[in-house]
Amino acid sequence: MVDGTPRVSEWPPYERPREKLVSMGAKSLNDSELLAILLRTGNRNESAVALGQRLLATFGGIPGLSRTVVAELSRVKGVGLAKGAQILAALELGRRMSERSLVPEESIRSGESVYRLLGPRLREERKESFWVLLLDTRHRLRRMEKISEGTLAMTPVHPREAFSPAVRESASAVIFVHNHPSGDPEPSPEDWSLTTRLVECGTLLGIRVLDHIVIGDHAYVSLRERGAPMGG
Questions:
Q1: Is 138 helix (H, G, I), strand (E, B) or coil?
Q2: DSSP state for residue 29 in the 8-state scheme
Q3: What is the pLDDT along the chain (232 residues), one digit of tens a residue?
Q4: Which among 44, 79, 98 is the end of a domain?
Q5: Which end of the chain has fewer CB atoms at under 10 Å, N or C?
Q6: CATH of the domain at 44
């Protein structure tokens, strides 16, 4: 009993998150119940489920939690460093699973396929970051790499750094991707200007620039689809 509130271990078995997961599967649990399994215990005033609910409310749900750092979580009563690390590790595993759901053998030709690959990661980032997807002659993904990370409003990108991984690994084509932490994926004038420079540089290097994707909050913009001239 926690100050008059039953502990999860005192609940009926069919209501306990762990037993519920075992008998009915992970999909049967809501977000706070899944967090309760990671937390294992609550604090003097809350059960693990109640603590999970408070974390979700405090940080803005799962998307908000994924943007936190361990230091922020550890300041919450009942969490601490160890539990905070466990939560962020679980969220990162889920994000990586989502990224890898697009198999390398699949050709990447649309903004939608790029968004499925990097959207879950970049739409939660607090800072603007710039990525390159390295593709082979059939536009299959070979690897993706972060080129730079900037501030809330911008990230410095030079064509030399942007194409360095593609040159190093002899990529046939590339797609550039960056996020807008504001949540609005509408390309800025600087985004259009940078895209023109990157396409020109790619032409000189013999590396086709297929697209430049801007990712926002559950949305994206393809500059190719908006009419920007590309290299392939």
A1: coil
A2: S
A3: 445 555 677 777 778 888 988 988 888 889 999 999 999 888 888 888 999 999 999 988 888 888 888 999 989 988 989 999 999 999 888 877 766 655 454 577 788 889 988 888 888 788 899 999 999 988 888 888 999 887 655 667 888 899 999 999 999 999 999 999 988 999 999 999 999 999 999 999 999 999 999 999 889 999 999 999 987 6
A4: 98
A5: N
A6: 1.10.150
